Amino acid sequence: MVTVTFIRHGQSEDNVHDIWAGWKDAPLSALGRRQAQALGRSFASTTITRIYTSDLLRAHATAKAVHDHHAEPKPPFTPSELLREQHFGVAEGKEWAIDIPEGTTREELQKKGIYPVYWGRDEKFDGGESLDDLFRRSEEALKEFVFPYLDTDDHIAIASHGLCISELMSVLVKLDPKADQSESYRGLLNTAWTRVQLKRRVGGDSNNGAQPSLEISVSHVNHASHLAGLDGFTKDEDESKIRAFFGGETGSITNADTEVRPVCDK
């Protein structure tokens, strides 16, 4: 059974502004760097066999903190564009809005440089990705970075972004016919991690060989105890609508809870 730990990046310099920041490559903020170091220290005694990360600065630096604190021999460290956040096309770096106020239109707002959220999974900004596009990219990432190790005892860490992690988890859940499809893996805090154990489902349908049928068990969701007492961190900083959205909360916007819980015990 392979173990996969998904890690959301630390706070970036763009996270504190109401702007679209998918592929816009802002570094970690000062708080984000402290969060990443706290995360790295908390993983110092955890054996990780492989680290994959988005190549964007905020995720790469977060993964590097985990790698730096890992004992020798350190695991292979692989950046990839497949693990990037959703790409928001023409909206990148532009002002963000949760909805369209009554009496105006999306087109009128965009002329003012304000780009409201698209809620449909197949909708996207010009030049960008929809959530369906991100789901398909997540399938590619798992096929390359996780599925080859299903028959091992490896522990794989994947540092990515809130929306991307929610889609990666969605892919995995859909491949387990007995998983609870109603569970949410969204609203992630900065540097929070979610852990899942995966193995092939014996006698399961393998989708004509394209993807494996899985048996999954989720042990931790949105776990961020390493942030307790961190100077400069308050939960309120992760409770705004925009931070909930970029934490992967793509439906109704709610506050994210830090929790540890079993989900799909087999």
From TrEMBL:
Q: Which GO terms describe its molecular function?
A: fructose-2,6-bisphosphate 2-phosphatase activity
Which Pfam families does this one have? His_Phos_1
- Which UniProt keyword terms apply here? Hydrolase
Per UniProt, substrate binds at 8-15, 58
Q: Name one GO cellular component term.
A: cytosol
**What biological processes does GO assign it?**
negative regulation of glycolytic process; regulation of pentose-phosphate shunt
Active site, per annotation = 9 (tele-phosphohistidine intermediate), 85 (proton donor/acceptor)
Q: Which InterPro entries match?
A: His_Pase_superF_clade-1 (IPR013078), His_PPase_superfam (IPR029033), Phosphoglycerate_Mutase (IPR051695)
PANTHER family named in the record? FRUCTOSE-2,6-BISPHOSPHATASE TIGAR
Q: In its UniProt entry, what is this protein called?
A: Phosphoglycerate mutase-like protein
What does the organism's lineage look like at the top? Answer: Eukaryota, Fungi, Dikarya, Basidiomycota, Agaricomycotina
